[in-house]
Amino acid sequence: MIVLKRFYTRSILRHIRYPYRTNATTTQRKPDPFNIEYDPIKQAVIYPSELIIQNKKYPTDSWTNVNGHILSRIGQNLHQQKNHPLYHLTNRLRQHFYQYYDPRKLSPKFSIIDDLRPIVTTEQNFDSICIPADHVSRTKTMNYYINKSTLLRAHTSAHQVDLIRSGLNAFLCIGDVYRRDSIDPTHYPVFHQCEGVQLFNKEELFIENRNVRGDKDYLQIFGSNEHRDATKQEGHTLEAVKLVEASLKKTITDLFKNLFPNAATLNSRWVDATFPFTHPSWEYEIEIDGKWYELLGCGIMEHSVLENSGLSKDHIGWAFGLGLERIAMIMYGIPDIRLFWSNDSGFLSQFAFDDSTRAVRYKPISVYPQCINDLSMWMGKTIIDPSDFHDLVRAIGGDLIEQVVLIDEFYSAKKQRHSQTYRIIYRSMDRTLTKEEINMVHKDIESHCKQQFGVEIR
Ligand code: FA5
Ligand code: MG
């Protein structure tokens, strides 16, 4: 696990192209469809004054840090592509949640929204859900900004407030999300999330109580002397919080029983967590072959999020956000998150069926060898933030990069310089890479590191 050294964050100059055709043995540059260029003399990425994304124009500024490789993923909507594993999982989520019925509305309780564009404002992604102005999750190091006020959503929680404002009180929101995250078999800079939200008013929450006692006002959601502590927010009564917690945990447990019918053999646990938009909060993990995998984050919605949504003091609710790829990888035995982006018919044909509940295990088409190259550098004026390095490597090597790990870091008092060594593991999903090809990509990474970070290769 790489510990990001946030205090070393520097202004980011990044190489922006995805220049290698992965199916050719000779490397060729593709023209950048977004007109993003790298100027080797100024040693800077040159953005056009506006970016045109899905026919909409966005002005660029000093916050712009998207790249062509990432922008090309917008609109692919893997979860809507028939016969894709994420499409089947989305269908299963839909089928499961449509079982909850609202007898008053004579319709399914949960609305399912899966087509909201991933370009959002900082207000939607952060402010609307109470992420503080100085929170680390807002940094350029962690997000893909189009400009200072517009970014690629980092989570589907960005839509909570808009959807509640539109009148929904129970919904799922499914879509692609974008993060400058570490690179390994379970993390990818673009992945898919499903947000779930359910709100309750007093009558809905205490329905059992009302039926039994015929006394609507016996229990309350809000009390005047309630303080915030580990178990609840200020204002909330413990009995309301405990009922919402029970509803949340039952909803999630029932979902996973449905997704993994032999759940008797599936160990799961709730881990206390912290999110700015829920309190209390948990993560849900399941155990596979002795390893615990985090599948989702969840909790009781912060009351101020509901206030931002225009609700007065009469509702309480839960929310969760789960990662589709993580679940699909376990469900189908898919070993590497990059496979979801594969156009290889050997991969996709394994998911070509209509009944999304069909149990299938992914059979690796073939296994190609890894190619490991280390890169050791003396730092220039500033120390490279690993996420900047990951981004540069991914932008140059594209999907040939399986993993990037910072394996060594030290300070030489004699040289008065910092050193970092990264291990870059190359592997193609669809062919054996030649040493020459990898060396060419590796050399390109080296020379861009020199240009962009002012390092000296050791
Ligand atoms: C969130 O994104 C919160 N918005 C979730 C949430 C929603 C909490 C509502 C409370 C209420 P987190 O960053 O942990 O939390 O991501 C949620 C899930 O997305 C993770 O549990 C994991 O399944 C998945 N995930 C996160 N990062 C990646 C990644 N880089 N690649 C693939 N999946 C990821
Ligand atoms: Mg998490």
TrEMBL record:
It is found in: Mitochondrion matrix. This is Phenylalanine--tRNA ligase, mitochondrial. GO terms for biological process: phenylalanyl-tRNA aminoacylation. Its EC number is 6.1.1.20. It comes from Rotaria socialis. Is responsible for the charging of tRNA(Phe) with phenylalanine in mitochondrial translation. To a lesser extent, also catalyzes direct attachment of m-Tyr (an oxidized version of Phe) to tRNA(Phe), thereby opening the way for delivery of the misacylated tRNA to the ribosome and incorporation of ROS-damaged amino acid into proteins. GO terms for cellular component: mitochondrial matrix. Residues 174-364 form the Aminoacyl-transfer RNA synthetases class-II family profile domain.
